Amino acid sequence: MPLPPPSPLVPKHGSPIYYQGPDLRQGALPAVLFFALSAHATLFEDPFNQLVLHLSQQDIRVFSWDLPFHGQGLDPHEGIRQWAHEFVHHPEFIYDFLDICQHNIDYLEEQDLINTKSLGVAGLSRGGFIAAHLAARDSRLRTILGFAPLTQPHPLEELKHIGTDSFDQISLTAIVDGLIHTRLRFYIGNHDTRVGTTACFHFINTLTVAAFNQGIRSPAVELIIYPSIGYKGHGTPPSIFQDGAEWIKRQIIT
Q1: Beta-carbon-side half-sphere exposure of residue 180 (alpha carbons within 13 Å)
Q2: How far apart are CA 119 and CA 224, in angstroms?
Q3: Whole-model pTM above 0.90?
Q4: Nearest to residue 183, comparing CAs of 249, 97, 94, 227?
Q5: Residue 94 to residues 63, 113, 186, 231, 249: CA-CA distances in angstroms?
Q6: What is the 3 state secondary structure string of 206-243?
Q7: Where are the domains of the chain?
Q8: Which parts of the chain have pLDDT scores under 70?
Q9: Can you name the CATH fold of 18-252?
Q10: Where are the alpha helices (DSSP H) in 90-182?
């Protein structure tokens, strides 16, 4: 039988933090913050944890905490429906969650569990959306990895009846100035109709142009497109998780 997950860390002002990887008693080590669904699903359930398995074998810690309206035992489909409702009525919920994230990073740093010079952030689907927003806000995160990332809300079928202009302020294209000096790699299927391949390319292009206009001749911004698999072309094959793991390891371990 698999070992039960370790008990979460509980910071005073953040939210419970789960982890996989080397023993915490070893002190600060390279680490990745990874978001997909609930922390438990992200770190311990296939296929979401495939990145985690690759990284933890390389002596890299992976930390995660629940995305908004997600948690162990909760329906993730209901969670994204709640996201859709909040996008329309209270889009600031994203910023409230980012405050929690920064409290958690502060805690991990204070407890000497992460080396902020060897720290990356990664996300799958809606988790990729959070990863980019967090990196744009927190200068300790200079390396971003996304799998089938949500880049703007409007492709979601839960929001088809809502005008797209209302989402401009929280789309990733609105935060490119905060991402210009990061290293970013996104992977997406060539016909992802869940989060939108075209929307993802538009964000990548917007970020690249913004960086170039700031004098960066060769922006460290990458988009890798692979043949779509799974429901609505939104799946991520094992080979892509492995490739992403190898890439982020190279970025955070120098």
Answers
A1: 12
A2: 22
A3: yes
A4: 249
A5: 19, 26, 21, 26, 28
A6: HHHHHHHHCCCCCCCEEEEEECCCCHHHCCCCHHHHHH
A7: 18-252
A8: 1-5, 161-166
A9: Rossmann fold (3.40.50)
A10: 93-110, 126-137
